[in-house]
Amino acid sequence: MISPITKPNRRILVVDDNAAIHADFRKILGAPEAADAELDAAESKLFGRQQAVAFEIDTASQGAEGLKMVERSLAEGRPYAMAFMDFRMPPGWDGIETTKRIWQVCPDLQIVICTAFADCSWDEVLEELNPLDRLLILKKPFDSIEVLQLASALTEKWRLRQESKAQLGSLEQVVRHRTRELEESQNAALNMMEDAVRHREKTERALEDLKHEVSERKKTESHLLQAQKMEAIGQLAGGIAHDFNNIIGAILGNVDLARMIPVGDPGREECLDAIHGASRRAADLVKQILAFSRRQEVKRQPMELRVIVREVLKLLRATIPAAVVFEADLAATPTVLADPSEIHQVAMNLCTNAWHALKGGAGVIRVTLAEIEVDAELARLHPDLRPGAYVRLTVQDTGCGMDAATLARIFDPFFTTKPAGEGTGLGLAVVHGIVKNHDGGIVVESQPGVGTTFQLYFPVFASAVAETAAPPLALPQGNGAHILFVDDEEPMIRMGRLALERMGYQVTTTINPTEALAWSRQQPDRFDLVVTDFNMPGLNGAELARQLRETRPGLRLILTTGYSASMDSAAARQSGFSELLPKPYDLRTLGEAVQRVLNPATPEKP
């Protein structure tokens, strides 16, 4: 056996373009002055305290110089145990490039990147360097104790790694020796080798089975993640149906009233306004459901959390029994950079869990929003948080609460306290993942018999949400352009024709996309614009657009759709459409879209 390396290596390289940083590291890690050293030795002798460790410090001002010093140390047989590396060192290599080059010649070197500002994220650094366990980040200005602790820990880690490598080398020698012995006694050990072969084959089969099981588990987990959303929607189905029935009832009732009221009576206009308002509510409800199920295009944007939280509370109020009291204090807060559908899912999961915690009885669910300043102490207790400004979403219930053992596992995937068949165990795991991806954190407090409080922290975003200008009172007016309106629904055809004609356009309509294609082929220049639905029997809107452009490449097109999993704004533009117009739309939205496409100089809708 090779003897393990016991002598510590305290050689440290500092690579930084600032000479003052060199001096700081020497002061923190280097040998103390003679007087200080004598005092330290005396204290150690009197009080039995371990004497301070001094490190051997070498410095370089640029990455290339540091690389040469590493190469020289290897040639001399006195390698460095670790290096403190500045992130930005103009005009030469930066910390990432220097680290990459040094690891090519000395892969065991432990490196700490020191930075006050990085041009790339930590994830990008990891992807660029593939650091394994050799890289740490130290934020400037750094603390002396933290530097000393890093130096002590990483030089000891280097020593242990070298010791492990030596032991592995020794083990390899033993293995080679034993292999030779086995080869020499091959005939005598034939039965033993056959057993080993059978065991190996059995192990390989077990590994293949395990790989298959892991693959299936990943597929199942992916399906269950979507199932968790559908589970939440299923729990709210009664409330959604309740809302839709109320909306439909308002529409039908006001239609009947409008028929009974004479033309010119103000009450008739009130009925029409009520019908319009109820239709708007139905459209908003569909958008909320689609956003939650992630079936529409979403992205992070500056937003106020209270807008989404209000939508969630409206959906839940229709489902949760009246015995459950909702207390909401949704104060105006700064904007956060967030994905609305993911925030919707987070709020929905937490509020639904709070309801379940009440065990079907009466209770209180309190939802609040507030701007919070996270201090150093709170950040220390919760590593996901950093000192600074946050918007805090709190969901509190007076339910059954959780003990410490349950609380420690609530974010584990597939962990649930619900009976079999009543939950996937993914709700809080999804919440945790979403909040972490938003650079936020979660603080949970719970006590059996008292209730549970979830506090979600989202970093404040500096930019404010732009205010949308109020639309003008008058409908946009056209200039007689000829529009072909294609839709397989007769009510949509009638509405489109009447509306566009009142706006000053010449309109031709058809419910048959094949007929529209024939007209265009007979007279390619007949139409200035085609407005077509996407989902139509025989020929969908995308295929119709492709064939229309074969006859007339410059033809302007607008696509309308009530819902399509495969068609979003980007896909519509790739198919040749100038705009995607989601249904339902009102006359103003239709008129503005037509005007923008026919007059490209008109500013696009924000």
Quick tags:
606 residues, alpha/beta, five-stranded parallel β-sheet, five-stranded mixed β-sheet, 19 helices, 17% strand, disordered C terminus
Task: Summarize it.
Helix content is 50%, strand content 17%. The chain is of the alpha/beta class and 606 residues long. Residues 464-469 and 602-606 have low confidence and may be disordered.
What would you say this structure looks like, in words?
Helices cover about 50% and strands about 15% of the residues. It is of the alpha/beta class and about 600 residues long. The strands form four sheets. Strands 2-1-3-4-5 form a five-stranded parallel beta sheet, sandwiched between helices. The chain is elongated, with a radius of gyration of 35 Å. The model is unreliable at about 465-470 and about 600-605 (pLDDT under 50).
- Major sheet description: 5 strands, parallel
List the uncertain runs.
Answer: 464-469, 602-606
Radius of gyration from CA coordinates: 35 Å
Strand content: 15-25%
Strand ordering within the main sheet: 2-1-3-4-5
**Helix count, per DSSP?**
19
| Helix content bin | 40-55%
Overall geometric form? elongated
Q: What is the residue-averaged pLDDT?
A: 80
The class by helix and strand makeup works out as: alpha/beta
Beginning-to-end CA distance, first to last residue: 73 Å
